[in-house]
């Protein structure tokens, strides 16, 4: 038997093949040519010709699954990290690097270090180095038009902070839902334990994050108010990093008495700053916390601090498995979903050991 296989252009990320084998002949023995056509995700076409002695009297149609790997050129993707000094971001970056290596992608990594000018320099470098797509995780939403212009007309996936006007898709938190989950948990706790009698509602935010901040912290308020009204609200901007949150909450607590202070935050960095302030001032029992992200920096607080009520997990270590295949498909010209949300799960001291390894706590 002689078999020849020719591969058409395109790349395969999944394989479902339909094989049509048609053979028609009169009864008896003669030479028949069977042509099979295999179509894989409408991109890879495989044609084979089989010549053999066969005896056939019917037309046959059959469906099979096959694995076909087409040769592919290396694709170059640029990735702007928000700042790998932030534990949550470092997990995102590591996951992207691992997935890029697994899929044979040339990844240009650039750490913006929470600096809009450095994020712009990253984009300019991507253009020079021929990036065919961009993963953009930079925090200053107002800088996005300039950054979009700098890296050129290529597909862009924004990570956690929208990047108008050039983003092809957004990947990250369902911010409104995530905030609501944390707010509901905190509101329910205040209602069940204190009949909604508390001193103040402190919201640690980052208006630089634009829509992400509005949706996430707005979701917190909505969820909390399902159980308790918001009283004596204090909003602290730029409190999404540990040191600024430590300073701002320390200043607040020196002028804010009371032993039931609700503290909610856009991320765990802000919560860590608030916990540091409470510890410094000897007011560990006065503050009640709910944060977002559940990165490893907060695991021991969730497990051991009775005043840490609930966190909302984003599983940043899994971002890369969504982002890298999506940007590759976009580069190939395939349509991708405009919203690529991570899973969210409410994490408390009661279930954290079921989700994460906290044996070191």
Comma- or semicolon-separated keywords:
alpha/beta, 6-stranded mixed sheet, Rossmann fold, 361 residues, 17 strands, 10 helices, 3 domains, 25% strand, 34% helix
Structure explained in plain terms:
This protein is an alpha/beta fold. The protein folds into three domains: 2-63, no CATH class; 76-173 and 317-345, Response regulator (Rossmann fold); 175-313, Rossmann fold (3-Layer(aba) Sandwich). It is 34% helix and 25% strand. The protein is built from ten helices and 17 strands. The protein has helices at residues 87-102, 116-128, 144-151, 175-194, 211-225, 242-254, 268-280, 299-304, 319-331, 352-355, and strands spanning 2-7, 18-19, 30-40, 44-54, 62-63, 76-81, 106-111, 133-136, 156-159, 169-172, 200-204, 233-236, 261-265, 287-293, 308-313, 339-341, 345-347. The protein has a six-stranded parallel β-sheet with strand order 7-6-8-9-10-16, with helices on both faces. Strands 12-11-13-14-15-17 form a six-stranded mixed β-sheet, with helices on both faces. Helix 2 (116-128) packs parallel to helix 3, helix 4 runs parallel beside helix 5 (211-225) and helix 6 crosses helix 7. The longest helix is centred in the middle third of the chain and has 20 residues, at 175-194. The N and C termini lie far apart (65 Å). The model is unreliable at 1-71 (pLDDT under 50).
């Amino acid at each position: 038997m002689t078999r020849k296989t020719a591969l058409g252009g395109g790349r395969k990320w999944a394989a479902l093949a339909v094989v049509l084998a048609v053979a028609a002949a009169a009864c008896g023995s003669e030479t028949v040519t069977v042509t099979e056509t295999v179509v894989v995700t409408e991109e890879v076409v495989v044609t084979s010709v089989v010549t053999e002695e066969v005896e056939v009297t019917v037309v046959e149609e059959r469906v099979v699954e096959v694995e076909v790997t087409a040769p592919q050129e290396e694709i170059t993707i640029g990735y702007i990290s928000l700042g790998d000094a932030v534990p949550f971001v470092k997990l995102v970056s590591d996951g992207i690097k691992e997935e890029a290596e697994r899929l044979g992608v040339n990844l240009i990594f650039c750490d913006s270090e929470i600096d809009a000018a450095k994020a712009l320099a990253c984009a300019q470098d991507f253009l020079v180095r021929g990036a065919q797509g961009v993963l953009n995780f930079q925090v200053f939403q107002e800088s996005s038009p300039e950054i979009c212009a700098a890296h050129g007309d290529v597909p862009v996936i924004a990570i956690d902070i929208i990047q108008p006007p050039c983003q092809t898709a957004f990947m990250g938190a369902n911010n409104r839902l995530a905030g609501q989950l944390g707010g509901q948990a905190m509101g329910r706790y205040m209602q069940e334990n204190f009949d909604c009698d508390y001193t103040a509602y402190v919201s640690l935010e980052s208006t630089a994050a634009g829509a992400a901040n509005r949706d996430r912290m707005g979701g917190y308020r909505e969820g909390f108010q399902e159980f308790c009204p918001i009283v004596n609200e204090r909003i602290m901007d730029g409190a999404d990093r540990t040191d600024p949150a430590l300073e701002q909450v320390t200043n607040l607590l020196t002028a804010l008495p009371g032993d039931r202070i609700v503290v909610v935050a856009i991320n765990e960095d802000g919560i860590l700053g608030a916990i540091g302030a409470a510890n410094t001032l000897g007011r560990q029992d006065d503050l009640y916390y709910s944060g977002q992200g559940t990165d490893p920096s907060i695991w021991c607080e969730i497990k051991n601090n009775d005043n840490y009520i609930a966190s909302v997990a984003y599983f940043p270590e899994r971002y890369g498995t969504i982002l890298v295949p999506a940007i590759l498909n976009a580069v190939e010209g395939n349509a991708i979903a405009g919203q690529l949300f991570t899973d969210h799960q409410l994490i408390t001291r009661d279930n954290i050991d079921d989700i994460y390894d906290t044996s070191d706590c």
